[in-house]
Every structure is written in C-alpha cells, then in structure tokens.
Design a protein that fits this description.
This protein is an alpha/beta fold. The chain has 17 helices and 16 strands. A hairpin with a 3-residue loop joins β3 and β4. The longest helix has 21 residues. It is elongated.
C-alpha cells in the first residue's frame, strides 16, 4: 500500500484536529422541560395535570401546534382554554409549558391586513411583517398619564356629531336590537376617518362569515383598508379565540396610540364576547350568577374598555377611541350585560326598532342617547349651532306624541311640530355617505335659523343637498375657522345664512300653504 501524498496527509491532520477541538469544547446543554398530560377534553377547553408551576394566562402547547391559555389554576389540575381546532386531541396527550403569556404581533405591517386574534393572516397576502409582539392582556394607562378629551372624532353622521358628539379618547356604546344598523354606524365612522390621520381597528367577535365579508368588502370599496386593521373571529371558531379577540385588537391599537397617533377601535360585538366567556366559565365549572353569567363578567369588559383613553403630551399625546357594540333583546336596555356596559362607557347611542321601521335612518333615539364627554370636545363653531337643536327636537317628539291623540293644537304648537319634522328630515342620512363638518354646520345653521320651515317636507332632501353644495363655495377664511377651534363670528354667521338662503330660494318660491304641517 502506497503512502498518501503529502497534501492529503495535511488535510486529514487538519480535519482530525478540528474534530478533536470541537469534541473537547462541546458540553451537553441540559434544558428542563415541564410536560403534563391531558386528563379530559370538552368544547373548547382541556383539563391538564402534571404542571404545578404554570401561571395564570400562561401559554401551553398541545400536539399539532395547538396552543391554549391556562385559565383555571387549581391545586391538582389546570383548566385550559384552547386557541385552535382541537378535534385531534385526546386524553393522555402531552402538554408543554411555553413560559410566556399569549401575545399578538403589532406594527405598521398590520395596516390593511385581516388577521385572527393570535396574528395569523386570513387574507391570503402572505405572512405578516412585524418584529414586535405585545401581550393581549395589558394594564390600562395610569390616571396621571391621561389627559382630558379635547378633540372631536367626527363620525360623518349628522345626528351623532350634532347631538351625541364623540371625542378622541372616549368610549361610546352603540346599543340596540338586532338589525337596527349598529354595525352601519361604526362602519360609517371608520369611512369618515379617511384623510383625518386616524387609524382604525375593526374587531369582529363571533360574527357570521357573510356579515364579516360584507364589512370587509365595503372597507375595500371605499378605500378604508389603507388605514384599517381587521381582527376576525367567526361563529364556528373555537370560543377561546373569540374570548381573546377584543384584547388582542386593543393591544394592536395601543401600539399605535403609544406612537402618538389617534386610533379608533370597534368591538362588534361584546354580546358575543360575554356569551363566549359565560360558555367557557360554565365548562370550567365556575359558579354562575345573574343570567348564568359568572361574577367577574363586569371585570372582563371594564379592564378592556379602560384601555381606551387620551394620553397626556408627556406620553406622546395619542388617543384610543372605543366604539363597543352591544345587542339588546326586545329593547331591554336594563338587562345585565347592557347595564354593565352603560356604566363602564362614557355614553351610549341607542338605536330604536320603531324608528327603523318608520324609515328614520339612522334609527337613533335622541332621547335615550347621551354623550357624557364629547360635547366638551366639539368645535366651538359646531357647538354654537347645535346647542339648542337637541332641546328643540325633544320638544317636537313630546308634542308629536300628544298630537297623535287628535287634540286641537294652536298655531305655535303646529309651528313647533313642523320645525321638528324638518329637523328629523335633515338628520336622516343614507348608509356609507359620511358628511364633512363644514356641510353639517351649514345644514344645522339653516335649521336653527328656521330657513327650512317654509319648504315642503317632500322637497327636504333636495333642499338639504343644495345647502351642502353651497357649503363648498364658502370663503376660505370661514372654512378655516369652522375646521378649527375658533368661534363663529356674527359676520361669519350672517354670511353663511345668506349663502344658504340663496341656495334655498328656488325651493321657497315653489312652496305655498297647501302643505299641511
């Protein structure tokens, strides 16, 4: 056997030397793993034993890359809420601790995307681009880090912006029976944020697939997905996903708020969220209370909505405005969950089925609706023209009810009723047609100046459109004052009224006393 050439000999020596150094420097790393087993499986939950050091809301990993949240931490077993399809799990399967609580990806890469509560994309546009994750459960900002609500959040809906205004950082509840237009109001508010530097997060909780698809199609058609994140759980998703959905959506919104930006979040709806929590709690053998809800049902919503606020300038000055939606049954706003949320929020927008059936859209009952904060955030010019409108409308509703009994009415009462009917006609608004603040002020100023009173009700929609078109021709300095916090001067008011009067002249000349008020 011939000896190996010198160059091969040197290669062998170098290789063996490298292997010897690697063997000497290697030390086996022992990493402890805590593993338990499933003792039983039920709808959306699992009972696990053998993990004595698990903490509350810690993430556990199940076979098939399914994750769960430790919900009940008892002495001998753990009740786990599952966050995925669990049909393949069975008693005896291993469960592993992950060592962290459930979190969600956040950042600019989520804008325009549709995801589920654990950050998995649902829109077929590939993986999410995000380098930061935040826990879905986070403490709300401290009181000292908050500032007063001082800037309006324009919804583009006349009746809300005039009578039930919402400020940036406020929590305004949208409440009403099924199919009365609750989602439509929230959707119109999102559409109206185009060009206003407000990011939006829409959270669908346990909604039907067709309903979510309709909302997303509207957002895409109107170009609103450019500034919106959609977090979705559907009706057939595991209840654990529906439970964490609003918290995950809030963490996404909080990330932008902490960057100093203004954010709007819509929870659609918290009725499903409360029912999901009741389902999970009863499956985990927690004691039921009123209407079979567990005793901490108030706490799960209060700790969610307390995260909506307006931060002080030292904290960046961002804001998070919440529009939670709640569904009532047979107009019962005194039920358990509605009263809970009414006490947590800063006001409510109540939608009436009777108004909906009469074709008064949006079907907002002004008498039962209130905003405890937004009036202070209204622009000065807006507040000056809308201040007396709610009182006039309330008087009209009382007199209209009285007149339905057939009583003889004097001329002043007839005039008040006629004026109120024109207020109601002007407050009607089609879906997905938000109106700018300048146009709204022009219409409201015409109402308060009684310029519509001589116009037949049949021509009110055309007359209102003429006023809105006339608003585009206002002088630039007047428009600037209307859009800022400056008050409306007497000269500005006179100029607007004159412009509106000229726009309505064609309708006034055609009307006569044949109209029966």
């Amino acid at each position: 056997m011939k000896p190996a050439p010198d160059f091969l000999q040197s290669i062998f020596e170098q290789t063996f030397s490298t292997l010897q150094q690697a063997r000497q420097s290697f030390s086996p790393l022992l990493q402890p793993r805590e593993v338990g087993i499933i003792t039983s499986i039920a709808t959306g939950i699992a009972i696990v034993s053998g993990l004595p050091k698990v903490g509350f809301e810690e993430v556990l990993k199940f076979p098939g890359d399914i994750f769960g949240i430790a919900f009940n931490v008892n002495e001998n077993e753990i009740g786990v809420v599952l966050l995925g399809e669990y049909w393949h799990l069975q008693a005896g399967d291993e469960v592993e601790r992950c060592g962290h609580i459930v979190d969600v990806p956040v950042g600019d890469g989520l804008i325009g995307r549709i995801i589920n509560p654990i950050g998995e994309p649902l829109d077929g546009k590939g993986r999410l681009l995000s380098s930061t994750r935040l826990p879905v459960e986070r403490p709300s900002p401290a009181i000292m880090n908050r500032a007063a609500v001082s800037v309006p959040l324009q919804t583009g809906i006349k009746v809300i912006d005039a009578l039930i205004p919402v400020g940036r950082g406020q929590r305004e509840l949208i409440i009403g029976d099924r199919q009365t237009g609750k989602t439509a109001i929230a959707l119109d508010t999102i559409l109206n944020q185009r060009g206003k530097n407000v990011l939006c997060v829409y959270c669908a909780i346990g909604q039907r697939t067709s309903g979510v698809a309709k909302v997303i199609a509207t957002l895409e058609k109107q170009g609103a997905m450019e500034y919106t994140v959609v977090v979705v759980t559907e009706g057939n998703d595991p209840p654990g996903l529906a439970y964490i959905a609003p918290y995950a959506a809030t963490s996404i919104a909080e990330y932008f708020m902490q960057q100093g930006r203004d954010v709007l979040i819509v929870y659609d709806d918290l009725t499903h969220h409360a029912r999901t929590y009741r389902e999970l709690s009863l499956l985990l053998r927690r004691p039921p209370g009123r209407e079979a809800f567990p005793g901490d049902i108030f706490y799960i919503h209060s700790r969610l909505l307390e995260r909506a606020t307006h931060l002080s300038q030292e904290q960046g000055g961002g804001s998070l405005t919440a529009l939670p939606i709640i569904e009532t049954e047979a107009q019962d706003i005194s039920a358990y969950i509605p009263t809970n949320l009414i006490s947590i929020t800063d006001g409510q927008i109540y939608l009436s089925p009777s108004l909906f059936e009469l074709g008064v859209l949006p079907a907002i009952n002004v008498g039962k609706s209130v905003s405890r904060v937004g009036g202070k955030a209204q622009r000065a010019a807006y507040r000056s023209v809308a201040s007396n409108l709610k009182l006039a409308y309330a008087q009209f509703e009382e007199l209209e009810t009285f007149s339905s009994f057939g009583a003889r009415l004097d001329d002043n009462t007839l005039k008040t009723i006629g004026h109120g009917r024109r207020i109601r006609a002007c407050l009607k608004q089609a879906e997905s047609t938000p109106i700018s603040m300048v146009e709204q002020i022009a219409v409201l100023l015409a109402l308060t100046a009684n310029l519509f009173d001589d116009i037949p009700l049949t021509l009110m929609s055309e007359a209102e459109l003429a006023v809105r078109n006339a608003a585009a021709d206002f002088p630039a300095e007047i428009i600037t004052r209307l859009e800022t916090s400056e008050e409306l001067t007497a000269e500005d008011r006179d100029a607007i009224i004159q412009s509106v009067h000229n726009a309505l002249a064609q309708f006034m000349s055609s009307q006569k006393a044949e109209e029966i008020v």
